[in-house]
Every structure is written in structure tokens, then in C-alpha cells.
Amino acid sequence: MPELPEVQALTDFLRGRVVDLAVTGVELGSISVLKTYNPAPQALSGLMVTDVQRHGKWIDIDVDGLHLIFHLARAGWLRWSDALSTNMLRPGKSPIALRCRFSDGSGFDLTEAGTKKKLAAYIVKDPQEVPGIASLGPDPLSEAFDEAAFAALVSGRRTQIKGLLRDQSVIAGVGNAYSDEALHAAKLSPFAMAGSLKDDEVERLYTALREVLQGAITAAEGKPAKELKDSKRAGMRVHGRTGEKCPVCGDVVREVSFADRSLQYCATCQTGGKPLADRRMSRLLK
């Protein structure tokens, strides 16, 4: 799933290419991808793109006051073309969920792999009309998100810190991969209770989270959309590296699997050498 760094890179990529171009068409390959009906996609035709912004994991294309907003979900991606096919999309006939055309002949397709279709697009007059944006927590890289703000979010929470980091209503933009990376960098168990973290642990996690995200943004900067997935994978130290050596201590990277996802961690770095039981709501094995 694209997370804050990849979505920021896609946002920057689009901003550098489509601002001051006119939208010439928005076509739907999947009727269900568009969650709004008014304004209609045709309302964007002929209007100029004035900006592209990110809200958590959402990309917001401002088209002269109307906003085409989309979330790529778990298996979605943006495929850019400098010379987009002139063929019109036929609903249900391709993996393309949405196509957006611009006045210079360029454009992008939103695609989604797999059978669980979660990719979502909205056309609204105000980004706050999108429920997923209206409920977002603070952006972890904003100037206002200082250590005190992070400590206040963590304080008193009776939930595992891994789940808290992934909760978009608490912190916007962090998902499974970068929560694994931040917890590894901070040397904290993913199952540590958020409200029980000591002051120095909160400080370590705040610093690690910001450094991991900013480092990933820097690594992705300037890369075309088609290279961002590989860039993300290459930058991971523990996430997605089950069975490999931890780059810090050399221990094996371990995994905990759930019904629809998994997490990776290093027992030596994060849990005092004790493996975590591979089951939901696990505790440290005794």
C-alpha cells in the first residue's frame, strides 16, 4: 500500500506535470470507484489544474475549485503517460478504474490489482466533504506536530503502539510498512501498550517516525511514478524482509501474520530477544 512518502512523491510528480494544464476528460473503467455523483466527471472538462496536494494518503487535484481526490488503497497505483492512449475506457473491460486526460495529451490511469476493490475517488467542492479526509489525524511531518503533540496522542491509550501508528484518525499517512520501520528504529515492540511507554521511549519513537518518513521522502524525490514501489521496497530495513538479517544486529527478521496483513520486527532490537507469538493480540512468549 502506498503510504505518506510514496503519496507525497506522487503528489509532487503530478504537481510538476499537470498544474496549468486543462482537464480534457475523466473516464471511469469501474463505476464503483467514484463515490460521488455531483459534480459529475464532465464538470472537470475544460477547467485548469491549479494545484495538487496531499492529505494523509489521499491525493487532491485542485481543478479550478473542484477537487478530484483519490485514495489508492492496498492494491491501487497511478500509471502516468506523457501520451495517453486515445481509446476510450469501457467499464469492466480492463484493470483501469479511472483515467484522467490533460490538454497536452498526457494523463494518468488509476489501476487496482486483486479482487478486493478499495480504490476510491471523489469529485467535491471541498476536500473536507470526503469522509476519510475529514476524520484524519495530524500530519506527522507538519510543523505543528512536535514531540509534545505526539506525547499527548500516545498518553493514556490502551492500545498497542503498532495499531495506534496505523490509525489514520490519530496520525495521518502512516501504514503497515513505515510503522514497522519506525518501531524498529526506536527499538520498541509493536505490541507495547501506547499508554505505558516511558518518556524516553516516546521521544525515541517520535524522532524515529519523523526520520524514517523524511528519509523515505528524500529517497523518492524526483523519481517517476513507475519507480516508487521499488524505491520503497529498497529502503525497508525490516518490513517485508522476513528471514533476512537485521541490518543493525544481524539477528533474523521475524514476522507476525494476521488474517489480511503481517508485520516484521527484530527480536534482539525490539523485544529483548523474545520472539512474539504469531497470532492476533499476541503477547511475548514466556
UniProtKB/TrEMBL annotation:
Kindly list the GO molecular function terms attached to this UniProt entry: 8-oxo-7,8-dihydroguanine DNA N-glycosylase activity; class I DNA-(apurinic or apyrimidinic site) endonuclease activity; damaged DNA binding; zinc ion binding
State if S-adenosyl-L-methionine is listed as a keyword. Answer: no
Q: Which InterPro entries match?
A: DNA_glyclase_Znf_dom_DNA_BS, FPG_cat, FPG_N, H2TH_FPG, Ribosomal_uS13-like_H2TH, Znf_DNA_glyclase/AP_lyase, Znf_FPG/IleRS
Every copy of the FPG-type domain together lies at: 237-271
Q: Which cofactor does it need?
A: Zn(2+)
Task: List the SUPFAM superfamilies hit by this protein, alphabetically.
Answer: Glucocorticoid receptor-like (DNA-binding domain), N-terminal domain of MutM-like DNA repair proteins, S13-like H2TH domain
Q: Is-annotated flag, keyword Zinc?
A: yes
Tell me the Pfam families matching this sequence.
Fapy_DNA_glyco (PF01149), H2TH (PF06831), zf-FPG_IleRS (PF06827)
The record's family statement is:
Belongs to the FPG family.
Q: What is this protein called?
A: DNA lyase
List this protein's GO terms for biological process: base-excision repair
Instruction: Describe the location of the Formamidopyrimidine-DNA glycosylase catalytic domain by residue ranges.
Output: 2-93
- What keywords are annotated for this sequence in UniProt? DNA damage, DNA repair, DNA-binding, Glycosidase, Hydrolase, Lyase, Metal-binding, Multifunctional enzyme, Zinc, Zinc-finger
- Organism from which the protein derives: Luteipulveratus mongoliensis
List the catalytic activities from the record: 2'-deoxyribonucleotide-(2'-deoxyribose 5'-phosphate)-2'-deoxyribonucleotide-DNA = a 3'-end 2'-deoxyribonucleotide-(2,3-dehydro-2,3-deoxyribose 5'-phosphate)-DNA + a 5'-end 5'-phospho-2'-deoxyribonucleoside-DNA + H(+); Hydrolysis of DNA containing ring-opened 7-methylguanine residues, releasing 2,6-diamino-4-hydroxy-5-(N-methyl)formamidopyrimidine
